[in-house]
Amino acid sequence: MTEKSFPSPYDQKPAASAEGWKDLYAYNLVFQENRREVEEAKFWFCDSQHWPTVTKPFETIGFEFAVSCLGQYNSRHLLIPPANGIEFRIHNGYVFMSPVGVPETEIAARVPEFMARAGHYFQNWDGLLEKWQGKIRGTIDELNALSFEALPNAVPLEDVTSGKGLGPNDELLGNFDKLVSLTYRAWQYHFEFLNLGYVAYLDFFSFCKEVFPGIPDQAVAKMVQGVDMELFRPDDELKKLAKLAVELGVDGHFGNTENPEETLAAIGAAAGGAEWLAAWTEAQDPWFNFTVGNGFYAHDKYWMDHLELPLGYIADYIVRVQNGVGIDRPVAELVAERDRITEEYSELLSPEQLAAFQGKLGLARQVYPYVENHNFYIEHWTMGVFWRKARQLSKMLSEAGFWPEANGMFYLRRDEVRETLFDYVTGWAVGAPAIGPDYWPAEVARRKVIVDALSEERPQPALNTPPVVITEPFTLMLWGITSDQIKNWLGDSDAPEGEFRGMAASSGVAEGPARVISSSDQLSEVQEGDILVAPVTAPSWGPIFGKIRATVTDIGGMMSHAAIVCREYGMPAVTGTGTASAQIRTGQWLRVDGNNGTVTIVEDHGAEQDVAGLAHEHDLALAPAAAAQLDAVLAESSHA
Amino acid sequence: METATPAVTATPASHAAYIQFFDGGLPPLHEQLGGKCASLVALTAAGMPVPPGFAITTAAYDAFIREAGIEKDIHEMLANLDPDDVTAVDRVSAQLRLEITSRPVPAELHATTIEAYEALQSRFESPVPVAVRSSATAEDLPDASFAGQQDTYLWLLGVKDVTEHIRACWASLYTSRAIIYRLKNKIPNEGLSMAVAVQKMVNARVAGVAITMDPTNGDRSKIVMEASYGLGELVVSGQVTPDNITVDKVMLMVVKHSIGDKHAELVPDPASKSLVEREVPADRRGRLCISDTEITAIAAIAKRAEKHFKCPQDIEWALDRDLPDGENLLLLQSRPETVFSSTASGSIPTQSAGFGIESITRSLMTQAGKA
C-alpha cells in the first residue's frame, strides 16, 4: 500500500483575495492554529454531496444543525454501539467531515442500550412515525407564523391601553430566536428515524453481501426501494397539471412561463382555465415547498416563491404529452422488476436463510419510505419556510439601510444577525440611528469578495492521511466513501485517461453529450438527450430527469439522491466519480455505464455537432480497423 | 450385408433411426443420440440459437458394426485383455480402429448420411464447413464431461471429409485410453455405441464457456464466463488464458472481471481452407474480447438454459462473425454442472440468521469490524 495522503489543511494557502476567510466563520468551525496536532491526526472528507459550493457565513446553520443532530442521535439517543457522530469543519469555505468512533472499551456496554432504544422504534415504527408527522407539521406551522416586519414609529395605541407592557421589538427579537430554535428542532426530528432507517437497510445489505458475494449494491437498493414516495409527489403533481392542461384545452397558454402572472391570467381567462387554476392552487400546498437546490443554501429557489419554475416544467411536460410521449414514471414496470429481482434471489436461499432474508427485507421496506420522504418534510418544506423567513428579515434590514442588497444578511454569521437585530431594535428604541448601516455595507462587501474568491477554487476531496480501511457505517452508506473511492481520489486508480470510475448506482448504458451543471440556476440549459454531469444532484431536479439520458456525479453513494432518482426513472447513473464534473466539458460525448460504474469520454465523436443526439452503439471490444480486417478474412473464406 | 436385420432394411421410414436433425422435432433420446446430440436437440427444441446440424444415431453405428461383421472380433479381442499391459492394449486398439475405419459402411447408411449432409447444405447459399463430433452415451468414455473435446473435427468441407471423420469418431471408442478406462471401471463392451454430430461450423469471432454458478464457492446467484478470440477450442482445452467475467445472474450486471492474455486464436485460413492458430496482437489481448452488451447476452442465454434444464448448466457459446449483431450469439453446448449439483442451497452458508434488532446490532458491529 502506498503511504499517500491528502494535504493538511494547515499547509493550504487560500486564494490571495480570500485572506482572512476564517474570520467569516465561528471559531469552532475552522481549523485553529494551536490545534494542528489534533486536527491533522484525523481524516477529513469533503461533503460536496450536500455542500457542493462555498457556504456563506449564515448558511453554516445547515451543516451545523444537520450534522450536530445526526451525531446527537448516534451518540446520545440510540447509543449506536460502534459509531458516535461526525465532526465538521469549514475549510476554504467548504465543509469537511470526520466520523467519530466509539472507544473500544465502551462499545459492549452500549449494545443493550442500543437494542432497547432502537428496538423500541423498530417495533413501534408506524405509530411513532405518525407522531413524527404531527411534530414536524406543528414545527412548520410555527415557523410559518413567524414574520419580520419593520418596527412601527410608535407602539400601537391598543398595546399601550391594554397594558401589554411590551413593544413589537420584543416579538421581533423573539421571532429570530424562534426561527433558529424551531429549525434546530426540525433537524433533530430529521434524524429521529433516519439513522434507524439506514441501520435496518445496512442489515439487509450485509446479509445479501454475505449470501451472494459481490451482489451489486443496486440489486439490494432495488429490492428495498418503494415507488410511491411523497418525495416524488411534487413532480407527479406537475405531470398531473400538464395532463389536465391538455385535457382542458388550456395547453396553448404556456408559451411564456417566465412571466407567471401573465401566464396564469391568460389561463384564467380561457375556457376551462378556472378549473385548471383551482387544481394548480390545490397542488401548491404543500407540494410547491420544493427547492431546485438541496435546502442548504440561501439562494436555493423554491417553487412556491418562483412560480416560473413549476410553470416551465409543466410547459415541458405539456409538449411531451402533445407529442404522445409518456411522462409518467414507469411505476408498474418498477414494481414488476422489484418483484422479479426479489423472487429470483429468494429462490436461491435455504429455508432458514429465506426466513432471515424476508424478515430483514420486510423491515428494510418498512423503514425505507422515511429515508426518502423525510427529505420533502425537512430539506424542502421546513427549509423552504426557513429561508423565506430569513430572506424576509434580510430584506427588512436592507430596507433599514444595513446592507444595500436584499440578501446581504447571509454574509453575517447567525449570531451576528442577532447582534445586528439588537442594534436595529436599540436604534429604534433610543431614537438615534443604528450603527449597522455605517458598519455592515463595507463589511458585507469585503466578505463578498472573500466568498467569491473562495468559490473560484474547488475543494480537496479530503484532508490528511486516510485510514487503511473505511468501516464507519454512515460514511459508507450516506457518502459512499469507500477505500476504493479514496484510492481513486488519490490518483491511484488504474482508470485510463478519459475514463472515470465511480459507483454503479443505477443500471444501464447510455451515450450522449455531456451537460456540466454546477448549480441549479443552470438547469434551464439542460437539453433533451443530454448526459447530466454535476458535483451532486437534488431529487427536486426531477423534471429534468425526463429529458436526460444518464447522470454522473462527483460524490454520493447508492442511496444518494442522484442514485435514487435515476433508479426511479430507470436511467443509468454513475455516482462518486470524484472529479468528473471538473474534468468533463459540456458537449463532450460520454458513454455512461451504470452496470460497471464507468464514464468514458468518447474521443473523435464530433459530439459538438451532434444535435439530434441519438444513441450510438459502439462496440468497444473491436476497434474499427481490426473489425475491417476480420471482415476481409471472412469475405475471403466464404469465397473459398 | 448378409447380417442385415429387418430393423435396418431399406424402408424409408427406418432412415430416421440413422439420422436425426437437431430441429427435426423428435424427442432427445439419450441412448440414440448420446449426450452431446441429445443436448443439442433439446436446446434446439427449446428455441435456443443452436447452429443447425444432425446426429448420426447409435443405430447407425450399431448397423455399421453388425454389417461389417466385426462385432464378434471386438468382443474376442477385448476379452481377457490386461489393462496394465499397455503394449497389448495399444495393439488391440490399433487393430480395432483400423477395422472401423477401413470396413465399408452399409450402402443404405452411406446414402442416408449423404442425403442428410446435402439437406443441411441446401439451407445455405454456398457450401458451409461443418464440425463432426463424437456424442458418447455417458459412461462409455473417460472424461465424460469433456467427451466432446476428445473427438472433434473442425472445419470440414465436402461429404467425403465428413464421412471419413464420422468413422474416426466411431473409432475413438477404441482408443487405448478408452479401452483401459472401461476395463478398469468394469464397463461391459456389450451395447457399446456412439452417436456423431454433424453441425454447421460457427465462424467464431469470440467464443468461450459459461457456468451458471460461481464454481469457486457454489454461489448460484452468479454466472462465470470465460471468453477468448476465435473458436472456443483453445479455451476449453486450456491453451489460452481467457478473459474471466463474473456476472450477477439476477441483475445481469458484471460483478468482476479479469483480462486474460488470450495470446492465440483459432481462426479459418482462406488460403489453406482450414483452421490456423495465430498470434493475437498486443492491443487486442489487453482488453476484454466481448462488449458489455455481449456479456449480457451470453449471461441471459446461460440463464435461459439453466431455467430450461432446471439445474445449473455449463455452456459453450460463440459469437458468429457471419451473423448480424443481436443474432450472432450461438449456443454450442449445454450440460449439467456436476461439481456443485449436490449442494442443496444456491447460496453461501451464513452465520447471520434471524432478523430484527439482534441481527441489526450484529451487522453494525461486523461492518465496523467489531464483531
TrEMBL record, chain A:
Give the stretches traversing the membrane.
Answer: none
Cross-referenced InterPro entries: PEP-util_enz_mobile_dom, PEP_Utilizing_Enz, Phosphohistidine_dom_sf
| Pfam families referenced in this protein's UniProt entry, alphabetically | PEP-utilizers
Originating species: Cryobacterium glucosi
Q: Which domain of life is it from?
A: Bacteria
According to the entry, every stretch annotated as the PEP-utilising enzyme mobile domain falls at 527-597
Per its record, how is this protein called by name? PEP-utilising enzyme mobile domain-containing protein
UniProtKB/TrEMBL annotation, chain B:
Q: Origin organism of this chain?
A: Cryobacterium glucosi
Please explain the role this protein plays, according to its UniProt record.
Answer: Catalyzes the phosphorylation of pyruvate to phosphoenolpyruvate.
As for family, the record states: Belongs to the PEP-utilizing enzyme family.
The highest taxon in the source lineage is Bacteria
Provide the reaction this enzyme catalyses: pyruvate + ATP + H2O = phosphoenolpyruvate + AMP + phosphate + 2 H(+)
**What Pfam families does the database record attribute to this sequence?**
PPDK_N
Please give the InterPro entries that the UniProt record associates with this protein: ATP_grasp_subdomain_1, PEP_synth, PPDK_AMP/ATP-bd
The catalytic activity of this protein is classed by the Enzyme Commission as: 2.7.9.2
Taking every annotated instance into account, which residue ranges of this chain make up the domain Pyruvate phosphate dikinase AMP/ATP-binding? 31-350
Q: What is this protein called?
A: Phosphoenolpyruvate synthase
List UniProt keywords, sorted A-Z: ATP-binding, Kinase, Magnesium, Metal-binding, Nucleotide-binding, Transferase
Coiled-coil stretches, from where to where?
none
Q: In which pathway does it act?
A: Carbohydrate biosynthesis; gluconeogenesis
Q: Which cofactor does it need?
A: Mg(2+)
